[in-house]
Amino acid sequence: MAGAVSSKDEVHVRGFADSHVHLASSAFENDVDLVIERARAAGARALVCIGESPEAAARAEKLSLRYPGLVWFTCGVHPHDAATWDDEKHPGVIRLASAAGAVAVGECGLDYHYDHAPREIQRHALNAQVALAAELNRPVVLHTREAEADTSAMLKDAASAGVRGVLHCYTGTRDLAEQALAVGWYVSFSGIITFRNWVDEELLRCVPDDRLLVESDAPYLAPVPNRGKRNESSWVPRTIARLALARETDVESLAALTLHNTRAFFGLPA
């Protein structure tokens, strides 16, 4: 594909952020410290560890305490687990996590591809978490897949409540991305954009410089040439290189830009 990153070339940057990584996943339970050190050696200056469940958030918090200034964490309930949402329990858990330093609510959202939870329950859990984000003055990390109409409606409600967020690992339409951008949201791209079947170059170019994030979504979605392997934050520079190529800028500048944007979006210190 035109614009693909060569698998023969290494990508080095002085500093980058991984705005979405599941370091609390069982996939990393035996070597998470080595994974974090490899990321640091590759130039990582901020790793946002996603707590997609209260249990994952608790593990993510411990990592943030072990790596202050490098690892940060979030707390929420993933749409796959929306059927577990408890109006009595989960708001209190997220409030406590926020008080302990969680920088965002999520990963939450809507997934109508797998439908692991009934759609009505997914919408209820998402709306409750958006309301919590408004209460806590935290951004939202949003997962959306094949749920464009309901995501669009949620964006309007979030904007009315003063909630900003990020469309993480975005592969949706340009129209939905522009709706999110119009209400102050960010858009994040993952290693999917390095895959041979990625064709939407215009989507990679339409996000303004100040709303652009990059992520690994590790342990998932390893970029080419590591596709199919367990993903790591240390490979984010390959995604940055692919994005820089599409946007006709240099890798180092885009790495610095997205590091700055990650800090600004999550309220991280420089």
Q: How would you describe what is shown here?
A:
The chain has 270 residues and is of the alpha/beta class. It has a single domain, classed as TIM Barrel (Alpha-Beta Barrel), CATH 3.20.20. Helix content is 40%, strand content 14%. The protein contains nine helices and eight strands. It has helices at residues 32-42, 54-66, 90-99, 119-136, 148-160, 174-182, 201-206, 236-247, 251-266; strands spanning 16-21, 44-49, 71-73, 105-111, 140-145, 165-167, 186-189, 212-214. The strands form two sheets. Strands 4-5-6-7-8 form a five-stranded parallel sheet. The chain has a three-stranded parallel sheet with strand order 1-2-3. α6 (174-182) links the parallel β6 and β7. The longest helix is centred in the middle third of the chain and has 18 residues, at 119-136. Mean pLDDT is 96; it is low at 1-7.
Task: Quickly list its features.
270 residues, alpha/beta, TIM Barrel, three-stranded parallel beta sheet, globular, disordered N terminus
Task: Show the helix and strand layout.
Layout: E1 16-21, H1 32-42, E2 44-49, H2 54-66, E3 71-73, H3 90-99, E4 105-111, H4 119-136, E5 140-145, H5 148-160, E6 165-167, H6 174-182, E7 186-189, H7 201-206, E8 212-214, H8 236-247, H9 251-266
